[in-house]
Amino acid sequence: MAGLESWYRLLMWAYPARYRHDRGEEMLGTLLDLAGPGRRWPAAADAADILRGGLAARWRQQPLLRREVGWAALYLVLAIAVPVPGKWWMWPLAGGSSMAADLFWSRRRRHRMLRQHGRRLDDKAPGRPAAR
Amino acid sequence: VSLREPTYLVLLALADGPLHGYGVAKCARELSGGRVRLGAGTLYGALDRLAAEGRITVSGESIVDGRHRRYYDLTEAGRQVLAAETDRLSRLAALGRQRLAGSRLIPQAGS
Predict the structure, then answer these.
(1) A116 pLDDT exceeds 80?
(2) pLDDT higher than threshold 90 for residue A102
(3) Torsion sign over Cα A32, A34, A37, A40
(4) By the 8 A CB rule, do B19 and B57 touch?
(5) What angle do CA A36, A38, A41 make, to 5 degrees?
(6) Full-model pTM
(7) What is the rounded average pLDDT of the residues A46-69?
(8) Number of Cβ atoms within 10 Å of the Cβ of A18
(9) Which residues pair with B74 in a beta bridge?
């Protein structure tokens, strides 16, 4: 039984510290009652339920977490929706600056630069007539 | 307002008088014929939300066999919500019965 209790205590770390302080003992009692006799190991469904409840409590208690998740979502949307030069797996890496990178490296601009530089190089190339 | 089933069962469990967390879970399971088995995370999530909405309140605390017990009770607002939701569900069920009976009559009328 002591083993089961320590398992539950471990799982309850999913909850915010203040919540554990206020409600932890009560919840632990309910968990042990719900488990019934002879159980030495939390059931997988119960463990998932505690973890989900803990995350929900953190979500409710900490506006900071909400803000962080909001920013992360915005970052992901930018990273995925805005095209960036390079391999697809680099998109999340470039997410924060992908909009600026896209403006800078837009295909049209890249082509224009290639054309201009290419022409300039051609001007200096030996044995070729000047472009203009 | 329509309540989710676990929330409705928690309120219904408390209709008879104050219960502690385990009592609520046990009663909800019995009320649903063993179908809804509330885990502690779901149960306390529902209790917290209902308390924040003023639909239930903590009516007492005690320690029994080394277990910390906290008892919950319906508030007047909670009782009203429970009654309103019960009305809504029974109207819906009556409508459902009516339509099912009607659909059974159609083939008979055609034959």
Answers:
(1) no
(2) no
(3) negative
(4) no
(5) 90
(6) 0.68
(7) 85
(8) 11
(9) B56
Using CB atoms, pick whichever of A25, A46, A53 lies closest to residue B44: A53
Collapse the DSSP code of A37 into the 3-class scheme (helix H, G, I; strand E, B; otherwise coil) and give the result: coil
* ipTM score for this prediction: 0.82
B39 within 8 A of B71, measured Cβ to Cβ: no
**What's the token pair of residue B71?**
């008892």
What residue in B sits closest to A59 (Cα-Cα)?
B45
Residue in the structure block whose two tokens are 């339920």: A49
Q: What is the mean pLDDT of each run of 10 residues along chain B (111 residues)?
A: 88 95 95 93 94 94 88 96 96 94 64 46
- CA–CA distance, A32 with A1 (Å, rounded to integer): 9
* Tens of pLDDT, residues A41-53: 899 999 999 999 9
β-pair type (B67-74, B19-20): antiparallel
Average pLDDT (A51-57) is 92
- CB-CB neighbors (< 8 A) of B23 in chain A: none
For chain B, say whether A2 makes contact (Cβ under 8 Å): no
For the cut 60, the answer to whether the pLDDT of residue A130 exceeds it is no
Would you tell me the crossing angle of helices A17-35 and A44-61 to the nearest 10 degrees? 160
Partners of B54 in the β-ladder: none
10 Å CB burial of residue B56 (0-12, 13-18, 19+) is buried
Give the neighbor-by-neighbor strand order of the sheet with B19-20.
B19-20, B67-74, B56-64
Task: Report how far residue B42's alpha carbon sits from residue B55's, in angstroms, rounded to the nearest whole number.
Answer: 17
Cβ distance B25 to A30 less than 8 Å, yes or no, reads: yes
In whole angstroms, give the CA distance from residue A42 to residue A32: 10
